[in-house]
């Protein structure tokens, strides 16, 4: 069966950029620290739960976290839980051979630690209802995961460049919001992994901009305009995300200022020369970023007004 022009383009780009992938893989391996999830969990706080071994059932009073921190931790964990779907999606983009395949497996192994350590922390500290958490995990994973960008190399790589950085921000801010130094230390460790993953993908996109500038620019624009977090399929995600945004853990301002803009600046998007559809895509992106900035400002204003009203009522 003959390849379509788009398939030929994708295959050619994968082949051309494999030396870059190998270089970035080696850089990653030289910088990634070995760490162990069990060392970040306060096991001495644990006790048996109800069930076959007859421990104590969970009650809300068991948790020292407020509702916002608890919700954010649950969203973060359920997002990590869908790793099998992400592995399948990323393998569909990069394949399973050579440096690409080595990266896919290494990335998956590192990501798996995140779900392990967060779940162990939540269970041992009784921060959340473990039965409700397990039911939420089953519901979320039964839905599976389908990437909005399919197996397109440029769209897939652009997406994970932004998504890994977004996840880093969400983990770090969740840790700070928890009020628990142990939790903050754990999520800072997880966020460090996410940052290294982001650098791998971001550097691949930089190379793609050199190899195929206009096609890459179009992919970046389409991904930015349609971006949603991988946990968007979590049951009740909209309500949870609003709560998280109102707490300043992850909101439109952070998405614009701390996720999108840093990547776009690093790639030199506003200073590069594009032609044809690439130039059109950058114009579309500039317009979208202005709209997003305005929406972020509007959200911040409304949030401050709500906080002021709440403070006045308490006063």
TrEMBL record:
<keyword id="KW-0408">Iron</keyword>
<keyword id="KW-0275">Fatty acid biosynthesis</keyword>
<dbReference type="Pfam" id="PF03405">
    <property type="entry name" value="FA_desaturase_2"/>
</dbReference>
<keyword id="KW-0560">Oxidoreductase</keyword>
<comment type="similarity">
    <text>Belongs to the fatty acid desaturase type 2 family.</text>
</comment>
<keyword id="KW-0276">Fatty acid metabolism</keyword>
<dbReference type="InterPro" id="IPR005067">
    <property type="entry name" value="Fatty_acid_desaturase-2"/>
</dbReference>
<comment type="subunit">
    <text>Homodimer.</text>
</comment>
<dbReference type="InterPro" id="IPR009078">
    <property type="entry name" value="Ferritin-like_SF"/>
</dbReference>
<dbReference type="InterPro" id="IPR012348">
    <property type="entry name" value="RNR-like"/>
</dbReference>
<protein>
    <submittedName>
        <fullName>Acyl-ACP desaturase</fullName>
    </submittedName>
</protein>
<keyword id="KW-0443">Lipid metabolism</keyword>
<keyword id="KW-0479">Metal-binding</keyword>
<keyword id="KW-0444">Lipid biosynthesis</keyword>
């Amino acid at each position: 069966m003959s390849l379509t022009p788009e398939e030929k383009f994708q295959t050619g780009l994968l082949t051309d950029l494999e030396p870059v992938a190998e270089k970035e893989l080696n850089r990653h391996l030289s910088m990634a620290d070995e760490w162990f999830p069990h060392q970040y969990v306060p096991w001495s706080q644990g006790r048996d739960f109800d069930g076959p071994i007859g421990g104590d059932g969970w009650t809300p009073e068991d948790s020292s976290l407020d509702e916002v921190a608890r919700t954010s931790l649950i969203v973060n964990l359920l997002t990590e839980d869908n790793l099998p779907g992400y592995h399948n999606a990323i393998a569909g983009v990069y394949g399973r051979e050579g440096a690409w395949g080595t990266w896919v497996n290494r990335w998956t192994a590192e990501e798996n630690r995140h779900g392990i350590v967060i779940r162990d922390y939540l269970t041992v500290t009784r921060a959340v209802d473990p039965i409700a958490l397990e039911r939420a995990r089953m519901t979320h994973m039964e839905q599976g995961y389908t990437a909005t960008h399919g197996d397109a190399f440029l769209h897939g790589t652009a997406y994970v460049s932004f998504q890994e950085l977004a996840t880093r921000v969400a983990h770090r801010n969740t840790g700070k919001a928890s009020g628990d130094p142990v939790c903050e230390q754990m999520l800072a460790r997880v966020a460090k992994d996410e940052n290294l993953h982001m650098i791998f993908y971001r550097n691949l996109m930089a190379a793609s901009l050199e190899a195929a500038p206009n096609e890459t620019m179009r992919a970046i624009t389409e991904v930015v305009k349609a971006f949603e977090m991988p946990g968007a399929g979590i049951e009740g995600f909209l309500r949870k995300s609003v709560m998280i945004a109102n707490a300043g853990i992850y909101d439109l301002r952070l998405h614009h200022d701390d996720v999108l803009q840093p990547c776009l600046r690093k790639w030199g998007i506003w200073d590069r020369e594009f032609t044809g559809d690439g130039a059109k895509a950058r114009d579309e992106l500039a317009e979208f970023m202005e709209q997003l900035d305005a929406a972020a400002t509007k959200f911040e204003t409304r949030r401050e007004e709500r906080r002021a009203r709440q403070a006045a009522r308490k006063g």
